[in-house]
Design brief:
Number of helices: 1
Shape: elongated
Strand content: 35-45%
Order of helices and strands: EEEEEEEEHE
Radius of gyration: 16 Å
Length: 116
């Protein structure tokens, strides 16, 4: 868990999916809590696709690929690249598994910065 705080806003982010899990403003919770009775997600990052492909497949250069709905980033552990008091940057890079469903090398960064 990574926490960033600017004195007014406090945000907790998990490495899995670089997903924000809590937002607290002046001591008051302001975010969906991920109650598994309804939906255990909170704020998933949808990369490289939002939604799904027909039959979860697409073709590039005559090669067919299968990719999950809403991509793969939400289920992967991001590297915590940097953290300062009010900011955090997370990094996801391609792997053998991502290249099987998304045939491009990439560096995907997410930077959260609190401004109040």
């Amino acid at each position: 868990m990574v926490t960033i705080d600017n004195g007014t806003i406090k945000v907790e982010i998990i490495k899995k999916g670089a997903e924000i899990r809590r937002v607290n403003v002046n001591g008051e919770e302001r975010f969906w809590n991920g109650d598994p009775e309804f939906w255990d997600g909170v704020a998933p990052v949808l990369f490289p696709n939002c939604g799904g492909m027909r039959d979860d497949k697409y073709t590039i250069g005559g090669v067919e690929y299968t990719i999950p709905k809403h991509g793969f980033a939400k289920n992967m552990d991001f590297e915590v690249e940097s953290v300062s008091g009010n900011s955090a940057t997370f990094l996801l890079t391609d792997t053998e598994d991502t290249l099987k469903c998304y045939p491009w090398h990439f560096e995907f960064r997410i930077k959260y910065t609190l401004v109040a």
